[in-house]
Amino acid sequence: MVHGIETSPGGLTVDVWERFTMPPAASVFYRLDNRLSLVEAHWSDAFVSTHAKLYNNYELDHALAPSEAALLRRITVFRP
Predict the structure, then answer these.
(1) Residue among 53, 49, 48 nearest 68 (CA)
(2) What are the φ/ψ torsions at residue 59 (nearest 5 degrees)?
(3) pLDDT tens-digit series, residues 44-69
(4) d(Cα 47, Cα 3) in Å, to the nearest integer?
(5) What is the pTM of this model?
(6) How far apart are CA 35 and CA 43, in angstroms?
């Protein structure tokens, strides 16, 4: 769920909550340039700790791995 969008002269930052029903918010932040190309993607500390907690409680079947991090950096922009 998109929680927020912050604009700047160089583009925008989108805050996506991966698990909004469980505090603290597990955010993934996407920074895009003015052409909506991905500049940077990173996740909050809460994302990492929530993922580990869910894995340890058998609610996820995998630990956070580099391959998942790579998937989180893949975005698709839909243009009208």
Answers:
(1) 48
(2) -90, -15
(3) 888 888 888 888 999 889 888 888 87
(4) 14
(5) 0.74
(6) 22
CA R_g for the chain: 14
Burial 32-71 (b: 16+ CB within 10 A, else e): beeeeeeeebebbebbeebbeebeeeeeeeeebeeeeeee
CA distance 41 to 61: 23
CA dist 10 and 33 (Å) reads 6
Which residues make beta-bridge pairs with 27? 17
Distance (Å, whole) CA 42 – CA 80: 27
- Residues 33-50: tens digit of each pLDDT: 999 899 999 888 888 888
DSSP-derived 3-state class of residue 68: helix
